[in-house]
Amino acid sequence: MKRREFVRSLEEAGCEITRSSGKHDIYYNPTTGQSAPVPRHTEIANTLCKVIRKQLGLPTD
């Protein structure tokens, strides 16, 4: 999945970027209080997308 699409879906679900570090951005879900790192690659594997969504407390679809 393209990173741009994945980040857009996280933001539509209510997640916010809390900080940017070297190779990852940290996203935070205020409704669940959970956070997860999102790599800065142009392509993110679908399995990793599911793991990140699960860490943020979002449905994995």
Account of the 3D structure:
- There is one protein chain.
- The chain is of the alpha+beta class.
- The chain has one domain: Metal Transport, Frataxin, Chain A (2-Layer Sandwich).
- It is built from two helices and three strands.
- Strands 1-2-3 form a three-stranded antiparallel β-sheet, with helices on one face.
- A hairpin with a 3-residue loop joins strand 1 and strand 2.
- The mean pLDDT is 95.
Tell me what the CATH architecture is.
Answer: 2-Layer Sandwich
Tell me the distance between the termini: 14 Å
Low-confidence stretches: none
For the sheet with most strands, the description reads: 3 strands, antiparallel
Strand order of the largest sheet: 1-2-3
Strand content: 25-35%
Q: Which range best describes the helical content: under 10%, 10-25%, 25-40%, 40-55%, 55-70% or over 70%?
A: 25-40%
Multimer state: single chain
User: Structural class of the helices, strands and pairings?
Assistant: alpha+beta
Compose a concise summary of this entry.
The chain is 33% helix and 28% strand. It is built from two helices and three strands.
Task: List descriptors.
61 residues; Metal Transport, Frataxin, Chain A
Give the SSE layout.
Blueprint: H1 3-12, E1 16-20, E2 24-29, E3 34-39, H2 46-55
Antiparallel strand pairs: 1-2, 2-3
